[in-house]
């Protein structure tokens, strides 16, 4: 059986899987923590882990697809920069190819996840698809006319760094007002902490009525969020879990994320006029608690018919999207890749 190796390199973990041409994962998805070191040590530790994983695989592998968090120079197979990894102008594709003695295709991890959802996931059969991955940050991928759109150098799709509020919070990328600052897991945690610290959230959702609404909240409104903060366990995941349980304060924090997500979706709908916008990443587990109000904001702010044409749905492939999509990218371009000497 012909197989590609799909590798997904994220800020906290690396996943590796064997994948067929139709996007089927063979056997287990192997995972290990992302190295937490400086740039040179990170690459050395990563390559050593990948060699070890490869040594355990008995199948013949045709090539490798790699999805990596960060801005990718597609033509140079290089990580230009990555807010969540210690990589800058790093020729990672060439390094992995030499380490594994296999042809390698390097792409952005959100691109690979997008391709997976279009080929075998939530957007299967659709030609115009946008994907946003809502995790610690916000990644993005674009499929137009059935093909990944990468732009001039391969770094298109940085949708998390489109500007939605240019005079406000500083993003980790060093710029102000990025969507990532308002519609990510990190943003959800920040909103929850504001509720804990101030007893309310100066909300884009509430507008002028926010203060009046805060006055009507019960004394124990932020109790459970405060308990999480005291236990040093207040983060996007724990706030989301509380929201799903029905906690009012946590749901207010989610509503703030939904508002800004909807604003971002309106921009995507207006620019690309997609058939579907797929929402992946950890926050997608909130389902319609997040997506339904975001849809309403999108429909209110996008021009017709863009805001009503674009379906907004949660991703289907979960943690397998990255490895499946990375392998599918390799399947598409393998004939253009050679093994380094």
CATH class type of the largest domain:
Alpha Beta
Second-tier CATH architecture of the largest domain: 2-Layer Sandwich
Q: Structural class, please? A: alpha/beta
Described by strand count, sense and barrel closure, the largest sheet is: 5 strands, mixed
**Could you name the CATH homologous superfamily of the largest domain?**
ATPase, nucleotide binding domain
CATH topology of the largest domain: Nucleotidyltransferase, domain 5
Helix content class: 25-40%
Overall strand count: 13
- Widest beta sheet: strand line-up: 3-2-1-4-8
Uncertain segments: 206-211
Strand content: 15-25%
**Gyration radius, in Å:** 21 Å
The termini sit apart by 26 Å
**Overall spatial form:** globular
- The number of domains: 2
Task: Describe the protein's architecture and organization.
With 341 residues, the protein is an alpha/beta fold. It folds into 2 domains: 131 residues, Nucleotidyltransferase, domain 5 (2-Layer Sandwich), CATH 3.30.420; 191 residues, Nucleotidyltransferase, domain 5 (2-Layer Sandwich). It has 11 helices and 13 strands. Strands 3-2-1-4-8 form a 5-stranded mixed sheet. Strands 11-10-9-12-13 form a 5-stranded mixed sheet, with helices on both faces. Strands 5-6-7 form a 3-stranded antiparallel sheet. A hairpin with a 4-residue loop joins strand 5 and strand 6. Helix 4 crosses helix 6, helix 4 packs across helix 7 and helix 4 packs antiparallel against helix 8. The longest helix is centred in the last third of the chain and has 25 residues. The radius of gyration is 21 Å and the shape is globular. It starts with a strand and ends in an 8-residue tail after the last helix.
């Amino acid at each position: 059986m012909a197989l590609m190796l799909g590798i997904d390199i994220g800020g906290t973990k690396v996943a590796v899987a064997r994948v067929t041409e139709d996007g089927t994962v063979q056997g287990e998805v192997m995972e290990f923590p992302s190295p937490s070191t400086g740039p040179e040590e990170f690459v050395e530790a990563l390559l050593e882990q990948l060699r070890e994983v490869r040594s355990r695989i008995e199948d013949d592998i045709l090539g490798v697809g790699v999805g990596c968090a960060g801005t990718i120079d597609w033509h140079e197979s290089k990580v230009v920069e990555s807010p969540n990894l210690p990589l800058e102008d790093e020729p990672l594709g060439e390094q992995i190819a030499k380490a594994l003695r296999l042809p390698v295709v390097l792409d952005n991890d959100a691109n690979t996840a997008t391709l997976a959802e279009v080929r075998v996931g939530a957007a299967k059969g659709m030609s115009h698809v946008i994907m946003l991955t809502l995790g610690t940050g916000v990644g993005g991928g674009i499929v137009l006319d059935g093909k990944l759109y990468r732009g001039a150098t391969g770094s298109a799709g940085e949708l998390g760094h489109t500007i939605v509020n240019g005079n406000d919070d500083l993003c980790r990328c060093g710029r102000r007002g990025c969507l990532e600052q308002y519609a990510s897991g990190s943003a959800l945690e920040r909103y929850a902490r504001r509720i804990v610290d101030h007893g309310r959230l100066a909300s884009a959702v509430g507008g002028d009525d926010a203060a009046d609404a805060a006055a009507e909240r019960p004394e124990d409104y932020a109790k459970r969020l405060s308990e999480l903060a005291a236990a040093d366990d207040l983060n996007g995941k724990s706030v989301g879990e509380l929201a799903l349980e029905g906690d009012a304060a946590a749901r207010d924090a989610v509503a703030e994320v939904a508002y800004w997500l909807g604003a971002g979706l309106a921009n995507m709908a207006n620019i690309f006029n997609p058939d579907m916008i797929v929402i992946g990443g950890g926050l997608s587990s909130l389902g319609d608690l997040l997506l339904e109000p975001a849809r309403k904001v999108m429909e209110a702010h996008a021009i017709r018919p863009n805001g009503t044409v674009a379906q907004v749905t949660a991703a289907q492939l979960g943690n397998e999207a990255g490895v499946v999509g990375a392998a599918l990218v390799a399947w598409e371009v393998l004939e253009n890749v050679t093994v380094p000497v």
